[in-house]
Design a protein that fits this description.
716 residues, single chain, globular, ten-stranded antiparallel sheet, alpha+beta
Length: 716
């Protein structure tokens, strides 16, 4: 969180504008007092110091009836001491007394994009940083150190920013297993409102982001402000809309009672909160997050390999010959990575036993995994393996030999979930054992990829006599970091009974997330759309599943299942040895097209737009130079139109001309029109980008659970 610049010798009294990528932050620094954010949102352009000083004066608060007798500031860490009566930015106790620090700013460092400060109060040291990255994401960090002798119990350390009163509508996400990231909207209500997540992991029902915006903000229009907490444990997302002050949007780690206790010299760093502003609706929010993530030095680069995962092909039924046949079929259609899922280790014939015993089961694999791994690699594919290191079955050698390693109260057993408990990774001996055990596998086999699963919530998570979610989460991060340091060639996917650990904390040390355990394409289309609000397609795993989805029993067409994987890190999760020759040909054709187009999809700007025909949705991606674009129109339900309205193609350069073609390999074969749309039958149409984005083109009548994929290429 340190910002490199020359430190200011004395705390300044000035109003400063910070900016990046069209977003701005205006901050009033007031000497030894904590600064106040006057504005976060649109860049006002060229303004001088005199204008900023005048703005500060014009923003001064009045004193109203039945209120404090003096005007008070909304600081970067608001508390009752300031006059703030919403949810406090910091809370806790000092030797049992309420924590109400009177901060004195000692130093400020700044550059064009933000600032970092150091403040002290009553034996505490606060380090805070607010700084834009090149994409216009404003990252907020707070760290508190106990520099005194008293014991500090910390109850909250939230990141907050003010938002204008016109941000009166709220969007966040909810869900459950196989229905993750379901959107919900409501007005921003008066009062302080907190959305708590107490799952011990991010959760299937995680808010993921909280977005507030102008009424009716949608995919492409409206002003919006959003926050995401880069954290994989308990969290709180909050809004405050009080009659006495400005609206506040924020997020922070949810701290259980007694969880964070700071003795002399100890410190607590809150998870980073990522804030994004947009004047282009939700796609503008996504664009900032995607550009920020893609700028990371370790961001997974295209081409992202096509994966075949064995779970829905064989489940726990592991036999060498069928898996060899599956690998052969995968190689023939163009798969680039073969992942052996659950069932390869000791006594693992169901989900009731074996977790924790990470040794290849000689009863199933008498010569180890070498024969399968060697065959997979001989067919030109990389090899991956499923693991669930943070968990243990009671029916396992590990649980029997180390019952004390379970994350639980010391005086009783806890409830199982999917027949498993959680290992206390914060115990150093547990972390070292996991590093050694996983390291032995990675040393013995040429594994390039781990599917790292986490199949339960944390309940009664007690470590060393205290609430243990924070310690567990940080220990898992440290475990992943050290494993990657020792094995830098290994990619890791974050899976958590599907999409229950999708956040930017886990993605600092993993390369892909499994968005959901459902491969039903209708469900997946919706889940992926809202996962895309935070993540670019290359980080979202999506696989072609079986004809009949095992989570919904719904039967869908192969081409629709193929189209659903398009804007993602694509793969297959079904037994393709049972596919007909025609179905395998369709898979091969899809994979060839995916390989041709993935550079566009994994580097371009993702787009969504409202479709006038009810029951349909549009997803697109446009290259940075606006020369190439791809669009997928999916139909989830029947619409009101027998002749669908023209479809607009957003994001194109209005000054260029484009040839628009149907990508047959990715489009449903059967359409409902008695006679086809003429240009579709002819194969292409050429039009200016100005007409394609404002007027649009006629599209076929699609049946529910079908898709149309269009490719636009600039020709002039």
């Amino acid at each position: 969180m340190t910002i490199t610049s020359a430190p200011v010798s004395a705390p300044p009294r000035t109003t400063t504008l910070f900016r990046a990528a069209g977003a701005a932050l205006i901050v009033a620094f007031r000497g030894e007092d904590l600064p106040e954010v006057l504005h976060w949102g649109a860049d006002p352009g060229a303004v001088d110091e005199a204008a900023l000083a005048a703005l500060d004066a014009a923003s001064a608060r009045q004193v109203t009836a039945s209120a404090l007798d003096e005007a008070w500031p909304l600081t970067v860490l608001p508390t009752e001491r300031d006059g703030w009566q919403g949810r406090p930015g910091i809370a806790g106790t000092v030797d049992g007394a309420p924590l109400l620090p009177g901060w004195r700013v000692e130093s400020v460092e700044s550059d064009d994009r933000g600032f970092a400060l150091r403040a002290c109060a009553d034996g505490l040291v606060l380090e805070s940083a607010l700084r834009f990255d090149a994409a216009g994401i404003l990252r907020v960090d707070h760290r508190v150190e106990n520099a005194g002798d008293a014991v500090v119990h910390l109850a909250a350390l939230d990141a907050t920013l003010p938002v204008p009163a016109r941000a009166s509508e709220l969007l966040d996400l909810a869900g459950r297993w196989t229905r993750e990231r379901s959107p919900q909207r409501r007005p921003v209500a008066m009062g302080s409102h907190a959305r708590d997540s107490r799952r011990g992991r991010t959760g299937h029902d995680a808010p993921t982001l909280t977005v507030v915006g102008t009424p009716g903000f949608d995919d492409r229009t409206g002003e919006a402000w959003a926050v995401h907490l880069a954290w994989s444990g308990d969290a709180v997302y909050r809004t405050d809309r009080l009659a006495e002050g400005r609206n506040v949007l924020g997020a922070g780690e949810l701290l259980r009672t007694g969880e964070i206790v700071l003795s002399a010299g100890e410190a607590f760093a809150a998870p980073t909160a990522w804030f994004a502003w947009s004047d282009r609706g939700l796609d503008g929010i996504s664009s900032r997050f995607h550009r920020s993530l893609r700028a990371r030095p370790g961001h997974p680069r295209t081409p992202r390999p096509v994966v075949l995962n064995t779970w829905e092909a064989v489940y726990f039924d592991h036999e060498l010959e069928p898996l060899i046949a599956l690998a052969d079929a995968a190689a023939e259609v163009g798969v680039e990575r073969f992942v052996l899922d659950d069932g390869w280790f000791l006594a693992r014939r169901s989900d009731g036993a074996g977790l924790g015993d990470w040794a290849v089961d000689p009863a199933v694999w008498p010569e180890g995994l070498h024969a399968l791994v060697d065959h997979v690699r001989a067919r030109g594919m990389g090899f991956g393996l499923w693991v669930e290191p943070e968990m243990v079955n009671p029916d396992s050698d590990l649980a029997r030999s180390h019952p004390e390693w379970v994350l639980a109260p010391s005086d009783r057993a806890t409830r199982t979930w999917r027949h498993q408990h959680v290992l206390d990774v914060a115990r150093p001996e547990v972390a070292e054992w996991l590093l050694a055990t996983l390291g032995a596998l990675l040393d013995e086999y040429p594994i390039e990829y781990l599917k790292w699963d986490h199949n339960r919530d944390l309940l009664e998570a007690v470590h060393a006599g205290r609430a243990g979610v924070d310690a567990q989460t940080r220990a898992v991060y440290a475990l992943l970091d050290e494993l990657r340091r020792r094995h830098p060639h290994v990619e890791i996917e974050s899976c958590s009974s599907g999409g229950a650990r999708v956040d930017l904390g886990i993605l600092e040390r993993t390369d892909r997330v499994w968005a959901s355990d459902t491969n039903d394409p209708l469900e997946r289309t919706r889940i992926q759309r809202w996962t895309e609000l935070l993540l670019p397609p290359e980080l979202i795993g999506s696989h072609v599943g079986p004809t009949q989805a095992h989570t919904t029993d719904r039967v869908t067409d192969l081409r629709f299942r193929i189209a659903t994987t398009l804007f993602a890190s694509a793969g297959i999760e079904t037994d393709i040895t049972r596919f007909t020759a025609d179905e395998r040909a369709q898979l091969a054709e899809w994979i060839a097209e995916y390989k041709r187009l993935r550079s566009l999809m994994h580097t371009g700007e993702l787009l969504h737009d409202a479709v006038a025909d009810e029951g349909a949705a549009l997803t697109g991606v446009v290259s940075e130079d606006r020369a190439h674009a791809l669009y997928r129109l999916t139909r989830e339900a029947t619409g009101e139109w027998a002749v669908p309205p023209a479809l607009r193609l957003p994001g194109l350069d209005p000054s260029r001309t484009y040839r628009v073609e149907v990508v047959r390999a990715l489009t449903t074969g059967h359409l409902l029109d008695m006679r086809p749309v003429p240009w579709v039958a002819e194969g292409s149409v050429t039009l200016p980008g100005s007409l394609l984005s404002t007027v649009g083109v006629r599209t076929p009548l699609l049946a529910p659970a079908s898709a149309l994929v269009l490719e636009a290429t600039a020709v002039a």
